[in-house]
Amino acid sequence: MAPAMAIRQLSPETVNRIAAGEVIERPASVVKELVENALDAGATEIEIVAAAGGLSLLRITDNGAGMSAQDLELCVERHATSKLNDDDLFDIRTMGFRGEALPSIGSIARLTIQTRPRGQDGLALVVDCGRKSTIGPGALNHGTIVEVRELFSATPARLKFLRSERSENQAISEMVKRLAMANPAVGFELVTGDKTPLRFPRAAETPDGHLQRLARVMGREFLDDALPVRGQRDKLEVTGYCALPTLHRNDAGGQYLFVNRRPVRDKLLLGAIRAAYGDLVPKGRHPVFALYLSVPTDVVDVNVHPAKAEVRFQDNAAVRSLVINAVRHALEAAGHRASVFGGQSTLETLARTPHQPTGNVAPWSGPQPLLGQQSTPNQQSSPSYITSALAEAMQAPFADIAAPSADARPSGPTPTPDMLARPLGAARAQIHETYIVAQTHNSVVIVDQHAAHERLVYERMKAALANGGVARQGLLIPEIITLEDHEVAALEDASAELAELGLVLEAFGSDAIAVRETPALLGQTNIKGLVTDLARDIAADRGRTALKERLEAVCATMACHGSVRAGRRLTGDEMNALLRQMEATPYSGQCNHGRPTYVELKLTDIERLFGRRT
């Protein structure tokens, strides 16, 4: 057994390197700390330069207030900060406050700080792996330049835990994006070695300016599908934007949370947002949002994580309730809206897809002038000009509409202007006995009749369930359905829940179920198919899901079986009635599986495809 070692005081250098291990995980951590310092200094323009993934060089330049000689001397000392009032850790109004970043960075790299307050001379200070120089003159405009070279040179063992230069650059870029989203009134520029500069010009401190900044980070599709979120309770306030449920991703990369302008990853808030979306987003997919929570400093603890990436709230229940209600209200206000991304991607696919020529049409050999027009250099290079072959191929899907046949039925009389002014327009045809084609004043709407009616039935079932239960219709003769023994047992265990949803059944021996009543709103449905699917789903779950989610899942299965099926012919009145119900039903823009129920093709975009508009 090794002899006990005497307790001794660690050297300041060792203490700083330990602190660096907690605060500085990778180059992106350095960028975060230094940019936050620039923000606290009142900077309105910040430039970040990174070389070799930030390991060779990180330089942050800002036009903030700068530092005096006394402040510059103290800023690299551990636990020295200008960001706390009277040492009150419950009244933190700045981004940084620990006083660990600069001394931690200086202990593991070569740190150079140049600073110049307005109306004063420039100053410079160097800290080389913990060894501090004397203050000298610095040449710069007002503000501060912090340069970090040879990061982790004093702790080379940390280098083996870093990823490739590309990965480190991506992490830096993601960090800058989050900070830019939290501070739209500040201009940012990031220069790395593997891509063109990332620029975020200063935006107005208005909702529109904020949304434009978000769109530069989250993409054009988010701008088109963003729903404003606003909620307030006492001194708590949540603002921001969430995307329509039909705009979702296979990872959490499109989720951004901020507490008092601080980017965070908080499980409580993420869980609240997921609960707000509920069954509108399919399992395994993630909603897209950027939400900002403003709370009094005395009810949130931002000091629970060395890198300030997590927070703790005094009243979790109040925060969770506020976020859920605000997001739900935004989603409900969207009504039947579906993502515009579906229509845009459809048109883009049509424009990109190569088509085989038909008849005597010559093969496509690049953009050609329209019939009756002379070719010009500009026309030859313009993507708005298409060949007759492409036009013919693109008209083919609409041939049934132009010439009604057994598979394309017009809705009857010419629609009135009032019907064309409705959000989903007037039904004009049914294609392949599955899709309803409707017309508005300025667009063509294509509706998946099964997906749309499925959502309508589902919402009715949920409303009936909330109001005391779903109305039932008795069967003159009970239907006997043969199942596996474990499926019969699972349905028998869930019989009380199913009865609330209007499905009354009981065991009929060990391998069969007798169905006596079905939900009235399903009408004539395939009872055997419905019960078989329910038995399979419930047996597979066996108590692993909360009751509310189980009921919603059962409702979804019933709605699927009770909705208008693909392949059923609809009359014009039936198609128009479905459109009107969709307009009046919240969330009808997506089916129970998170897919869009319709796409809208703007007439101007269609005209561009056919060369009618440039």
- From the 3D structure, determine the CATH topology of the largest domain: Ribosomal Protein S8, Chain: A, domain 1
Low-confidence segments, given as residue ranges, are 355-391, 397-406
Q: Report the count of strand segments.
A: 25
| Oligomeric assembly | single chain
* CATH top level label of the largest domain: Alpha Beta
Number of helices: 21
Largest sheet: 9 strands, mixed
**Overall geometry:** elongated
Structural class: alpha+beta
Number of domains: 3
Helix content: 25-40%
Compute the separation of the termini in Å: 84 Å
Q: Summarize model confidence as the mean pLDDT.
A: 81
Percent in strands: 15-25%
How is this structure best described in words?
There is one protein chain. This protein has 21 helices and 25 strands. The termini are far apart. With 614 residues, it is α+β, with helices and mostly antiparallel strands.
Would you summarize the structure shown here?
The protein has 614 residues and is of the alpha+beta class. It folds into three domains: 12-200, Heat Shock Protein 90, CATH 3.30.565.10; 207-333, Ribosomal Protein S5, domain 2, CATH 3.30.230; 395-602, MutL, C-terminal domain, regulatory subdomain (Ribosomal Protein S8, Chain: A, domain 1), CATH 3.30.1370. It is built from 21 helices and 25 strands.
